[in-house]
Each structure stands twice: as structure tokens, then as C-alpha cells.
Specification:
Layout (H helix, E strand, L loop, with lengths): L15 H19 L11 E6 L5 H12 L3 E6 L11 H11 L2 E5 L3 H11 L3 E3 L7 H15 L6 E5 L5 H13 L2 E5 L8 H14 L3 E4 L10 E4 L11 H8 L6 H6 L6 E4 L11 H6 L1 H23 L3
Parallel strand pairs: 1-2, 1-3, 3-4, 5-6, 5-8, 6-7, 8-9
Bound molecules: phosphoric acid mono(formamide)ester and norvaline (NVA).
Length: 312
């Protein structure tokens, strides 16, 4: 299998086999790094890291992943370049494509990352948009594999803003990989019907289920609960409304009890707002796995770069 030359914009573009290949590669790179072995597969490669929105994990993962493999990362914040306001996305893309071997983009519009891919002519990786956060899903699935061995047949429940980038991408990834996926959210925050329908099609092929519910009892039988901030970056003005809608859906001890599974774990993409989407005690109980998940951002993002632009 090769993913050489491919962009990574949404998991919709990848088959279960391709996602599995990236997870295997990440696990291999992780095992090597634990032994102190880094590689040279990005030697001579330069990557641009564009960030319209802030980041800890994604930025550090691209930087360290690139340097570990012998490449050079250049960080470009919103204040460093004039993407989309003094220079068109198309023109910036054409410039960066002449200089860099790959481009990471984190920002608002999915359309921007797609334009960057179209006009740069080099692989472009989505480091989060309002719509999707596909590299995060690789880290989540690597963590689930480490915890449970296999993804197929697991029961994963996302609790919170069911129409945000995390919920959308988890639904796509789960449907592709055969993970039974549930969104627990108030109706006002359910994902778009068209995306749910598409994921149900994927789920038919992989043999899993997609469920959207506002009944907290739906967590029964979950192997893992997943939550995320109630207000994503750029939605800070919605705080009051979200607290009202989502307070009944806080991940706390009572919700965990409803899983009826004392081995159920919590995943969180981080950053977390403790006391809102998750209580401090539940978060701390699951801290080991949540920080494994954060570490896995680096191994999986490294795998994406190595697979798409590396010499392997
Ligand atoms: N989970 C995640 O993407 O974290 P950052 O916003 O810190 O990159
Ligand atoms: N939904 C969150 C994810 C952060 C990694 C946000 O977009 O802010």
C-alpha cells in the first residue's frame, strides 16, 4: 500500500485499509521512538505549518514528528502570513507549493484546506477545521487499539456538541472502521442529516451501527465515552447557550454508571474544560489513557507525513 502524494483532508477520502495502514505505521514509529530509534524518511523535506487557530498538541506533533524524521518544519501563524485577506488562498498555495513538500493547515473553513490542496500541488494535511479534525481520529483509534486490541465491534459514544469537528470526524472514522458509534447530544446539536446518511452507508459496508440520541441511557454497553469542549474555537460567544443545552450531558460518575461497564474508559481530544463537559474526578481517573491519546497525536501525525511525503 502507498499513500505517497495524497492529501489528508477528511477521513471520507480514505478506506478502512488505508486508515489501518496509517495506524500500523504509527504503532511501528511509536515502538521505534520508545527504543530511541528515529528515522530519516523526511530528510530534505520542508513542511509548512499554517495555524489560523491556536494549538498545543497538533503544532507540537507536526514539529516533532517532522524533526524526528529529519525534515524541516516552518510555523506560520495567522499574523505571519496574509492567507485569505491580503493574498488569496490560491496564490499563497501556489507559492508554498513551490517551496514546501507538504503543508499542514489549521483554521476555520474546510474550503480553505481544500483550496490549499488543489492549488499547491503538494500533500496538504488538515490539522482541524470547523468541520473536521481527521488527524485526531488516528490518535483516538491508535489509543483504542492499545486499550482493546481491535477496533471492530467496539462501542464508542461521543457525548457533547454532536455537530462539531470531533463528532463529525469520529462518526466518519468509526463508520469506516466498524466501530459502533453513538452521538449523545440534545437535538439542537445533532450533526447534519446528509453526513449521518453518508456514514450509515459506510457503516453498512463495515458492519457497524450509527446512532444519534438525546437519551442518556444510550451509553449502556459503551466501551468508551468521548467528550470535547462545549464551545469549539471560534464559538466562544455561544458559551451561555451551550451550558444550558449541554449541562445534562456532562460526563460524570453517574453517566459512567449508566454504561453498566466498569471497564469503560474516557477519551478526550483536549484541551478539556473540567467542571463543564467532564468532572475533574472522572477526568483524573482516566488521565493515563487521555494523555496516551495526546502522545499518540505525535506518532500518528508523523505517520501521516511519512506515508504521504516520506521516503519509505
Ligand atoms: N487535540 C488537539 O487538536 O489539540 P490542540 O488544539 O492543542 O492542537
Ligand atoms: N472541537 C474543538 C476541538 C479541539 C481540538 C475545537 O474545535 O475547538
Amino acid at each position: 500500500m502507498t499513500l505517497k502524494g495524497r492529501s489528508f483532508l477528511t477521513l471520507k477520502d480514505f478506506t478502512a485499509q488505508e486508515i489501518g495502514y496509517l495506524l500500523d505505521l504509527a504503532a511501528d514509529l511509536k515502538a521505534k521512538k520508545k527504543k530511541g530509534i528515529t528515522g530519516n524518511s523526511l530528510k530534505g523535506k520542508n513542511v509548512a505549518l499554517i495555524f489560523e487557530k491556536p494549538s498545543t498538541r497538533t503544532r507540537c506533533s507536526f514539529t516533532i514528528g517532522c524533526v524526528d524524521e529529519g525534515g524541516y518544519p516552518e510555523y506560520l501563524s495567522r499574523d505571519d502570513i496574509q492567507l485569505g485577506y491580503k493574498e488569496s488562498v490560491e496564490d499563497t498555495a501556489r507559492v508554498l507549493g513551490r517551496m514546501f513538500d507538504g503543508i499542514e493547515f489549521r483554521g476555520f473553513k474546510q474550503e480553505t484546506v481544500e483550496k490549499l490542496a488543489k492549488y499547491s500541488g503538494v500533500p496538504v494535511w488538515n490539522g482541524l477545521t470547523d468541520e473536521y479534525h481527521p488527524t485526531q481520529i488516528l490518535a483516538d483509534f491508535l489509543t483504542l487499539r492499545e486499550q482493546f486490541g481491535d477496533l471492530k465491534g467496539l462501542n464508542l459514544v461521543f457525548v457533547g456538541d454532536g455537530r462539531n469537528n470531533m463528532s463529525n470526524s469520529l462518526m466518519i472514522g468509526s463508520a469506516k472502521m466498524g466501530v459502533n458509534f453513538t452521538i449523545l447530544a440534545p437535538k439542537e446539536l445533532w450533526p447534519e442529516d446528509s453526513l449521518v446518511e453518508l456514514c450509515k452507508e459506510y457503516a453498512k459496508e463495515s458492519g457497524c451501527t450509527i446512532t444519534i440520541s438525546e437519551d442518556i441511557n444510550v451509553v449502556k454497553g459503551a466501551d468508551a465515552l468521548y467528550t470535547d469542549v462545549w464551545c469549539s474555537m471560534g464559538e466562544e460567544d455561544k458559551a451561555a447557550e451551550r451550558i444550558k443545552l449541554l449541562s445534562p450531558y456532562q460526563v460524570n460518575e453517574d453517566l459512567f454508571k449508566l454504561t453498566d461497564n466498569d471497564k469503560a474508559i474516557l477519551l478526550h481530544c483536549l484541551p478539556a474544560v473540567k467542571g463543564k463537559e467532564v468532572t475533574e474526578d472522572v477526568f483524573e481517573k482516566n488521565a493515563d489513557v487521555i494523555f496516551d491519546e495526546a502522545e499518540n497525536r505525535m506518532h500518528t501525525i508523523k505517520a501521516v507525513m511519512v506515508a504521504t511525503i516520506g521516503e519509505i
